[in-house]
Every structure is written in C-alpha cells, then in structure tokens.
C-alpha cells in the first residue's frame, strides 16, 4: 500500500504537475462566477512555474541534500563490497527498444567501473526491480546486467537484487541477500541528492553503509545558481522536492532512522 500511495502522491503533488493542475483549475474558473479565484490561481501558478524554470529554486532545494554527505576520500581502505541503487534505467524504453536506456542518473552505473578496477576484490551488487505500478516481467536489474556485461564489468561475479521497487525495499532485500557481517565496509553508490534518504533507510534496516555520492546536479557553490535551460531546472526542482518529501514520509512511517540523516 505504501508503494502505491507514494506513486500516486508523487505524481499529483510533484511541483510542476501540481501547478499545472492548479493553472487548469484557475483557467476553468475564469468562465464561472468565481473569476476572482480563477485569476488568482492562474497568476499564482504562472509565477510558480516561472520561478521553478528560471529561478534558483532548484539549487536551493538540492544544495543541502547534495552537501549532506561529502565525497569519499581517494585513499579510503578497500571496501568489502559496493552496493549500487537503481533509478538509472527507463524501463519502458528499454523494453520497446530492446536495449538498456539510461536516464540522467547514469553515473550510478558508470562509477562502479572505476571502483571495481580500483578494488577488484570488492563484491558488487545492483539493487533494483521494477518501479512500475503494474507488474512487469522486466526489471531494472535485467537492463543493468546486460549493460555491465556488454562493457565487460560483469564477469559473472556481480549480484543482482530484482525484487525491490523503492529505496526501502532496496535496503531490506539487499540486507537479506548479503547478510553483512559486523564491521564490514560496504559502499553505497547513489545520486548525491538521494544519499541522505538512502543512508537513513539502510541504517534503519540494520545495514550500516559508507556513502559514495555520485551524479551531482549542483556546483556546490554558496552563490545562487540560475539555470540556463528551463527543462533542466524543472527536473532539478522535481527531483529535490521528491527527496525532501521522501525524507519526511520515510521518517513518519519509521523507514528511516532520522529526518535528515547525517554522516
């Protein structure tokens, strides 16, 4: 039920979707006796969309999330294993085109190439099933397995967890599969903006991990960042808002060990 509700709320309350819906309601009210409300909702929606598309809102929302866990040092000790979270594959396109279709978070899949070369003894596991509401015979792990085998990273020694549909299930099912020993060092590879929620969930599941953030969307500069492309800015606002909402939801439902997990 949590998975289904999260998908519904994520679609309806996503900032861009929400204000588009609000603009439609406002435009409709212009043809009724509630014209004043219609003008107000239309103006509010237009201003909000303009701010998200051309203002610094995306950077303001994403910056604290990406800065929460610093990059891992280059001279860190050899880890026992590397866990890579899903969210890297467009399932629909992968099925229709019969090849792995990577999304913006592709660095989650490319970073392990260098990590595995640097730490050849470390075990590598990818966790990610299908995030679709309807059951799908094709999991994200299937596409990743094909991608990693084509580039030579997977030599038959990579583990794949195919059941999980969200970050909470990533943590629970990965822990069940690996049964980590106390004191073991496991790197967690995911987008920097997603790292706080991911670490909190893994900790709550009894799996202490070491953050290895990738796929940065902001420069880390303290100055306000104004986007050059509206589509990219809107995507950043959506991603960051989703993570902040996820932090709250996961904490309220007991799926994370803190509201804003820290190192």
Automatic annotation (TrEMBL):
Which organism does this record belong to?
Answer: Methylocystis rosea
Q: Which residues cross the membrane?
A: 6-31, 43-65
- Under which name does UniProt file this protein? YdcF family protein
Identify the keywords attached in UniProt to this record, alphabetized: Membrane, Transmembrane, Transmembrane helix
Q: Where is the DUF218 domain?
A: 80-246
Q: Does the keyword Transmembrane apply?
A: yes
List the Gene3D superfamilies hit by this protein, alphabetically.
HUPs
From the broadest rank down, the organism's phylogenetic lineage runs: Bacteria, Pseudomonadati, Pseudomonadota, Alphaproteobacteria, Hyphomicrobiales
List the PANTHER family hit by this protein, alphabetically: ENVELOPE BIOGENESIS FACTOR ELYC, INNER MEMBRANE PROTEIN, PROBABLE PERMEASE
Please give the superkingdom of this protein's source.
Answer: Bacteria
A Pfam family hit: DUF218
Cited InterPro entries: Cell_Envelope_Assoc (IPR051599), DUF218 (IPR003848), Rossmann-like_a/b/a_fold (IPR014729)
């Amino acid at each position: 039920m949590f998975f289904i509700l999260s998908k519904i709320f994520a679609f309806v309350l996503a900032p861009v979707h929400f204000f588009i819906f609000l603009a439609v309601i406002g435009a409709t009210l212009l043809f009724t006796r509630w014209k004043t409300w219609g003008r107000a909702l239309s103006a509010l929606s237009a201003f909000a969309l303009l701010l998200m598309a051309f203002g610094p809102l995306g950077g303001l929302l994403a910056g604290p999330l990406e800065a929460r866990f610093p990059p891992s040092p280059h001279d860190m000790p050899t880890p026992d294993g590397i866990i890579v979270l899903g969210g890297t594959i467009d399932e629909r396109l992968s099925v229709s085109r019969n090849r792995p279709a990577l999304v913006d978070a592709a660095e989650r899949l490319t970073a392990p190439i260098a990590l595995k070369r640097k730490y050849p003894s470390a075990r590598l596991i990818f966790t990610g099933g299908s995030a679709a509401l309807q059951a799908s015979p094709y999991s994200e792990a299937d596409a990743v397995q094909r991608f990693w085998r084509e580039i030579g990273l997977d030599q038959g020694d990579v583990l794949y967890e195919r059941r999980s549909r969200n970050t909470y299930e990533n943590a629970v099912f990965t822990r069940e599969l690996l049964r980590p020993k106390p004191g073991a060092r496991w790197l967690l590879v995911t987008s920097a903006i997603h790292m706080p929620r991911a670490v909190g969930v893994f900790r709550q599941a009894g799996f202490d991990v070491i953050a290895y953030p990738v796929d940065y969307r902001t420069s880390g500069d303290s100055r306000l960042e104004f986007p050059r492309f509206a589509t990219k800015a809107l995507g950043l606002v959506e991603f960051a808002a989703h993570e902040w909402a996820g932090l709250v939801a996961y904490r309220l439902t007991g799926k994370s060990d803190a509201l804003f997990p820290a190192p």
